[in-house]
Design a protein that fits this description.
heterodimer; A: alpha+beta; Heat Shock Protein 90; 2 domains; 5-stranded mixed beta sheet; two-stranded antiparallel ribbon; 11 helices; 7 strands; about 70% helix; rod-shaped; B: alpha/beta; Rossmann fold; 5-stranded parallel beta sheet; 5 strands; about 45% helix
Chain lengths: ~450, ~130
Amino acid sequence: MFFFTFLAAFLLTVRIRRALKFSPIYPKWRTALNASGWIIIGLWLLFNSNFSTEVNEILGALMLLGIVLYLKKEPDFKSFEVLLFAHYPLVIISFVNGVISLVFPDFFNKWDNFFVCAQIVAFGWIFARFATSKKQQEEIKRVNQRKSELEVLVAQRTMEITKQRNELQDALKELQATQAQLIQQEKLASLGELTAGIAHEIQNPLNFVNNFSEVSMELIDEMEHELGKGDTEEAITIAADIKQNLEKIRHHGQRADGIVKGMLQHSRASSNVKEPTNINIIADEYFRLAYHGLRAKDKSFNAELVTNLDPDLPVVNIVPQDVGRVLLNMFTNAFYAVHEKKKIAGSDFKPKVEVSTRTIQTLTRGPHGIEIRVKDNGNGIPDAIKDKIMQPFFTTKPAGEGTGLGLSLSYDIIVKAHKGKIDINSKEGEGTEFIISLPV
Amino acid sequence: MKILVVDDEADVQPLFLQRFRKEIKNHEVEFRFALSGEEALKYLKEKHSEVVLILSDINMPGMSGIELLDHIRHDFNMPPQPVVMMITAYADKENYKQAMDKGADDFLTKPLDFNLLKEKLKTISE
């Protein structure tokens, strides 16, 4: 029954061809598989007419074995291993059948049914294995399909997330730009508040420069006069006066210079460079500027200015214009508070704003920080809004008068950029005290 | 003639002393200085009858020149009434009107024109 081996070989090529139909390696094997099908049929016809059944049995077994071994060697057919393996029983049984029928024909004829049955079982075995392997293949195919579906889904989600992230980054950039713009606006607003004060503060020293130089010219005339008379003693006295005047001129010139420089520094974008700074100088300068600024805007405004500056204050490493802005903000707030109270309380109320500095000492290691207090006797901060005053855009001032950014920026500058802290003592109706602490 | 100058800027003191150098030397005028309205009032409490002229800055921390003027006119409302001239860097109508309403005799603006001031002094001393 060599027919089985040929049929099995033929079916094997057909099955493989079908299974490969939709795989990428199909074109590579299509011709070979097609051809081998025809070759098997051709061989069968050739063997059938030329050799005896016994020989054909052996040849068929060897041919099938050859095909199976060849396919097993090829990595492309790795997934058909189970199917290929299922052909071995048929190969062995057919070969044994062929040999026995050739060598012991009597024995074979006697047990003929048995041998053919074994061959049919071996042939059927291929079908059973094929069905199982087909099921497995389908399962694998399904899993692969599911996998690629998931991959597509993952790629889709990743794309969505990336898109969202990019959108968020853009939004963040926009927010940062807006924030920078707001900070700049706040700076300009505070510069506006300063302008009048600056004008006053520059006018004053300029007046002195003019006055002292004028009087010095007069004094020189007088000195010449005295020298003409021979009164050298008087001339020397006048010379001393002139020298003193020139010193005053220089002093007031420097004062105006300092104010202009401070103003430029204030309006410039922060360089964020920390430098050792004497807080007393900044505090005093901005205290006056804030006062005169408000004074120039509202003629009715007046307040007692008290400065209590610790002469031994250590220098601190700060960004001067940033901390200056914080102080300016605190002063402006304080003046605003006392001015508001004055409007209601009337002439009996004496507005007073006090700035004091002091060194924070530790017991063992000397100074470890400084403290700036800005105290007013204004209306105080109501308990209900104490939590909110540091929030951006929170303001109690009428629309258009405050940006609501002053204290929130102050917080950023002192706490975030300088590792300091801001404490607030406030009692409604009695006044407010802001305490800024900075590490040395 | 005793003149009280009230200004929170200490440097006006040498300026006055030098500008009126001759007059001081000839004992025509005598200067006293106060750095605040409060200080001026304290001085006036003791010596108000001696002071002929008060030159006061308006814009000072604490008691303003206007408040000082108010005090002078009310607290020392007895002869001899000193002449009070207000000085300010802010030469606006509002300031002027307020000073005049409160009883100022004159209103001068910074930077001070000393020649003009000397002219005015002459009319006072005459």
